[in-house]
Amino acid sequence: MHPKPSSVEEYISWFSPEIQSKLQQIREILKKALPEAKEVISYHMPAFRTSEVLVYYAAMKNHLGFYPTSSGVSNFKDLLEDYETGKGVIQIPYDQEIPEELITQIALFRKAEAKEKQERKLKR
């Protein structure tokens, strides 16, 4: 088990070149989808945050874990039939293409959800 990474770059550097390339790919997709989000390390994983963490991603033994929280998984159930999913995780096997379109849609959904939550808070 690694210590907590000090940066996304450090986190990515811990893995083999093949896995680094997958991590870099998902990172680029998320940077493009969420340009206003800040890249952070949260729960020892790279994450994108606005008023709250929108999505996390991490390298696992046999797959890339994409963590868009439970709403990010439940709202896209129909599109996720080809993937193993859990309460807040989508597993993308390393031997499969990263589903750019799907990750972008989920990231944008989470951004809108966080914004709405923030606006509700401000109205109180």
What's the short story on this structure?
By secondary structure, this protein is of the alpha+beta class. The chain has helices at about 10-15, 15-35, 70-75, 100-124; strands spanning about 40, 45-50, 55-60, 65, 85, 90-95. A hairpin with a 2-residue loop joins strand 1 (about 40) and strand 2.
What can you tell me about this protein's structure?
By secondary structure, the chain is of the alpha+beta class. Helix content is 43%, strand content 23%. It has 4 helices and 6 strands. It has helices at 8-13, 17-33, 69-74, 100-123; strands at residues 38-42, 45-49, 53-59, 63-67, 84-85, 90-93. Strands 1-2-3-4-6-5 form a 6-stranded antiparallel beta sheet. Helix 2 packs across helix 4. The longest helix is centred in the last third of the chain and has 24 residues, at 100-123. The radius of gyration is 14 Å and the shape is globular. It starts with 7 loop residues before the first helix and ends with a helix. The model has no long low-confidence stretch (mean pLDDT 95). This is DUF1801 domain-containing protein. Residues 20-107 form the YdhG-like domain.
